[in-house]
Amino acid sequence: xxxxxxxxxxxxxxxxxxxxxxxxxxxxxVLVDGALCSRSFGPSRATAxxxxxxxxxxxxxxxxxxxxxxxxxxxxxxxVEDLDAVIGASGGSAHLLGFSSGAxxxxxxxxxxxxxxxxAGYEPPLVVTPEGxxxxxxxxxxxxxxxDDGRPDEAVQMFMRHVGTPRPAIAVLRLLPLWRRLKDAAHxxxxxxxxxxxxxxxxxxxxxxxxHLSAPTLMTNGSKAxxxxxxxxxxxxxxxxxxxxxxxxxxxxxxxxxxxxxVTEFFRQHARSQA
Length: 275
Description:
The chain is of the alpha/beta class and 275 residues long.
């Protein structure tokens, strides 16, 4: 396992500084985090260690998180530009692996950036049935008010209740040191929900959003995913012509070993097909 880590920064198109780190050797693979996570908090660092024998794995702090800055006004387009800058600073082409809302961002980038060579996503929370976790129309505005009023604690609780975290679990989390890290990233929660956008309304996915996606694509979910979430992943895989795979025994908090082998084999198959 290659554990030598190098750090750097990339400058996005709007001047935002994006901090990243890399380890390993081989084709570049950029990991894209979901809500509240960063390269030092969430699945990326452990996943990077696992994959660094086969790839040069790059993890980065999405704008507004960790050591990355942010620039107003926010737009999902800016996050695609951030990824473009990170890829450019890491060699000029890359595979992408996104988690949760980061999987939707990775697909957006792959549909727009020709130097994304392949993309994999784990459980983007897309709602394609009315029975799913439909986002109330005023949810982002209410969340933003909490942030603007200096109530990040309330914003995190509001988000966690929406995604199904039981209230007793939230009460326990608030007593732990990690709660401060969640509050520190609370102001980026509207970013993720804005990226997900109209995929949260319990309707068929928009066909035009990823119509230019041509990179080989893998979509995955865990066997323990709720049916509404699995249905969204299946629908997305069918829409974009992706390979679809279910990971046995996995929840939304996927284990690095469970996702690592699957994406490694997928990216290897892509490389062989291009040889």
